[in-house]
Amino acid sequence: MQARHARHVAVRRVDLSRPGAGADHVTGTAEAPMQDFQQRGQQDQVPDPAEPDDDRLHGGCRHDSSPQWEAHKLVGSGRPWQASHKTMRAFAWFLALTALALAAIAVFSYPAWTLLHPYFDFPFHRVGERIGMLALLVGFLLIARHLKLADRASLGYGLPRRAFLREMSLALALGVASMLAVVGLMSALGLLEWTPAADFSGADLLRLAALRVVSGFAVAFIEETFLRGAMHTAIERESGTRPAVLLTALLYAATHFLASYHIAPAQVTSRSGLELLAGTLHSWAQPAGMVDAFLALLAVGVVLGLVRAATGNIAACTGLHAGWVWVMLVAHELTRPARGAPLGFLLSRVDGFVGW
């Protein structure tokens, strides 16, 4: 104790009568009582440099290598044991919204078609799809308000307009170039036949390209605003970037297997809403047949999520998405899958394009 706390030693006597007396002949006793140590507290304690304390090693922060703490560091703020709960809360809202839109198709398609059919010749499946989209829109507005997402930054539009358009345009060019490369590779491997393209004139090609670019941007703006905009923001605020990227990619991939199911007007009954819902979810009855397409779309969703996380907005995501969809829609019109080719197993059974 005397060696490490020398300032608590009181000097009693220094014998100056002998030469050399002084520092070599200091005598004394430790007079600091125990209560003095207790009163001085930690402010008088100087850590030994040879034995650094844990707080200084870790920047004054608590160090914990337990599994709960590791999970806490991965998913974001909050108590470690709340990580999984917080991860799923925002995601559950959007998952419930998707389920609600599907339920609306089953419940309201037939009543809406019954009201409209005497005056308009709308196909039953088209009425059901619009019912689902309307339910999704209304629910989205309510959830955005509830989760405090009803602002431009939360929806992914935080950039000034000019910067947003510039980033989106650059990403559009990159999306078109990359998907053209994919189409070229598929053609080189003999996976696409270009026979249908012979029926298109130059004017037809221009018209097709113009119509499909509009479709591409419509799809991109809707999906990116919903997924990489609001949903990504909500999950990222609660749980961090990794869950936001992964969960939005999962929902993105899953919703691409909602098929369009047609019911002839003469066959429409009061149960047609349920039949339409069952037909819409038909692909999920055979999951083995869509594994390749699902994994491919999941990878695309992860890429878009990483772009969203890196840029902080959906400008680049929208451009990439629109470019990919644009080229794919045009390719669907001009080509057909060569399923009999030696590498035909690489083509998806779902649409003949997205696959291994």
Which terms summarize this structure?
globular; two-stranded antiparallel sheet; 4% strand; 11 helices; 356 residues; mainly alpha
Helices, strands, pairings?
Blueprint: E1 9-14, E2 26-30, H1 34-40, H2 54-57, H3 67-75, H4 83-116, H5 124-146, H6 161-188, E3 192-193, H7 202-239, H8 241-255, H9 272-280, H10 291-311, H11 315-334, E4 336-337
What does this 3D model show about the protein?
- It contains eleven helices and four strands.
- The chain has a two-stranded antiparallel ribbon with strand order 1-2. The chain has a two-stranded antiparallel ribbon with strand order 3-4.
- It folds into two domains: 1-31, no CATH class; 90-346, no CATH class.
- Helix 6 (161-188) runs parallel beside helix 11 (315-334), helix 7 packs antiparallel against helix 11 (315-334) and helix 10 packs antiparallel against helix 11 (315-334).
- The chain is globular, with a radius of gyration of 33 Å.
- The protein is mainly alpha-helical and 356 residues long.
- Helices cover 58% and strands 4% of the residues.
- The chain has helices at residues 34-40, 54-57, 67-75, 83-116, 124-146, 161-188, 202-239, 241-255, 272-280, 291-311, 315-334; strands spanning 9-14, 26-30, 192-193, 336-337.
Please outline what is shown here.
This protein has eleven helices and four strands; from the N terminus they run ββααααααβαααααβ. It has 356 residues and is mostly helical.
Give the N-terminus to C-terminus distance in angstroms: 72 Å
Shape assignment: globular
Give me the strand/helix succession: EEHHHHHHEHHHHHE
Q: What would you call the structural class?
A: mainly alpha
Could you list the spans in which at least 5 consecutive residues all have pLDDT below 50? 1-34, 40-84
Strand content: under 5%
The profile of the biggest β sheet is: 2 strands, antiparallel
Provide the spatial order of strands within the biggest beta sheet: 1-2
What number is the mean pLDDT?
81
Separate helix tally: 11
Helix % is 55-70%
Number of domains: 2
Over the alpha carbons, how many angstroms does the gyration radius reach?
33 Å
Please provide the count of β strands: 4
